[in-house]
Write a structure and sequence with these properties.
Number of strands: 0
Helix content: over 70%
Distance between the termini: 89 Å
Shape: elongated
Low-confidence stretches: none
Mean pLDDT: 86
Length: 362
């Protein structure tokens, strides 16, 4: 029974987080019209009961119970329901006056939409690779496991054409060392996934400029900028905001924040050097530096944490297009290689067999 309740709660959270920006906007609107948060939540529950939305009833009921605790702090009310980044932003919103609370909630809602759009860009960038690679691998495995052994029985490999010998070499490795290849493949994927959050240092900065690491860097640098802007919006100092983000950051982001903090002490108002940690693309670095020159560093980060996301999404759109084209060329190239190679090898073998079986004229 507990497992069923946990599943229901998890599904309710997934559904809620899929459109939580609407909740924040509605909450901000209620605050603007001086409606108490408890009354707003009760209205949400009443509406959900009317339309039999049990997940909303469950979560809003939880929020309502928490709302009476810790002086009605929004961060406490939403903890475990929304992502940790939202909780950080809400903890800052709790510290400011009503007008800035409303402004902060609207900014948080807009940020969620932008981050979701960035997530869509990442999936778009990998769309072709994810779709085509399994087809390419299936085609290659069929050739390696089924067709190549059949051709091998027809004629010794020494008499195959060069392209056939190349495919045979791939087939030989796959058939005889498949277990080692499987371990290597799984290990490489696991190492790569681990490295995304944990690998740091100057070599990682260099790796972040090439595929696939630059996808991770661009995505997480944009989220970092959004979260930073959310905290700055609640009158946190830049140092405070960075330390809050550092507290729960993965090693990769923590390394960049540490360099950020050191650079602020070391370079003063040289904003180009302060942000030169490798977390931002060169284009974004230039934009921050130019904006900071005229409106101040804090204002530049605030501005680019909002409208600057449009520029990041432009960049991601271009990157997605390039990655999809390269993936398409790679996968189709592989398919053509195996198809043409096996077809050509088949024709050569058949010709040789016909020549050998033809009667010798005297």
């Amino acid at each position: 029974m507990d497992a069923v309740k946990k599943l229901q709660a998890w599904l309710a959270k997934v559904n809620f987080n899929g459109s939580r920006e609407d909740f924040y906007k509605n909450l901000a609107l209620a605050m603007k019209h001086d409606e108490p948060v408890a009354d707003f939540l009760q209205e949400e529950i009443k509406e959900a009961l009317k339309y039999k939305e049990q997940g909303t009833v469950l979560l809003c009921g939880r929020m309502l119970r928490r709302q009476n605790e810790q002086e009605g702090r929004l961060a406490h009310m939403m903890t475990t329901i929304v992502p940790l980044g939202d909780v950080f932003a809400l903890s800052g919103i709790d510290e400011v006056d009503k007008s800035k609370k409303i402004e902060g909630l609207y900014f948080l809602a807009d940020s969620i939409v932008r981050v979701r759009a960035m997530t869509g860009m990442i999936f778009k960038a990998l769309e072709t690779l994810i779709t085509m690679l399994p087809i390419f691998l299936a085609f290659a495995l069929i050739d390696a496991i089924i067709l190549v052994p059949e051709y091998e029985q027809m004629m010794p490999v020494e008499r195959w054409p060069a392209i056939g010998k190349a495919i045979y070499a791939i087939s030989y490795v796959v058939r005889n060392y498949w277990f080692a290849l499987a371990i290597l493949f799984v290990g490489s994927i696991a190492a790569f996934i681990w490295s995304l959050n944990n690998w740091t240092g100057k070599y990682r900065v260099a790796a972040d400029s090439v595929f696939p690491y630059f996808l991770y860097r661009n995505f997480h640098s944009s989220i970092f900028l959004v979260r930073l802007a959310q905290l700055l919006k609640t009158d946190k100092s830049l140092n405070e905001a960075l330390l809050i983000l550092r507290a729960r950051a993965a090693p990769w982001l923590r390394w960049h924040i540490d360099r950020f903090l050191r650079n602020m002490t070391r370079y003063g108002e040289d904003y180009g050097q302060i942000i030169n940690t490798g977390i931002f693309s060169r284009r974004m670095q230039k934009q921050i530096r130019a904006q900071a020159k005229y409106s101040g560093f804090r204002e530049a980060l605030l501005e680019l944490g909002g409208s600057g996301m449009n520029m990041l999404m432009e960049d991601m759109s271009k990157i997605a297009s390039r990655v999809n084209k390269v993936s398409l060329i790679f996968c189709f190239g592989g398919l053509i290689f195996f198809h043409f190679g096996m077809q050509y090898t088949s024709n050569v073998l058949i010709s040789q067999l016909k020549a050998e079986s033809a009667p010798v004229s005297h």
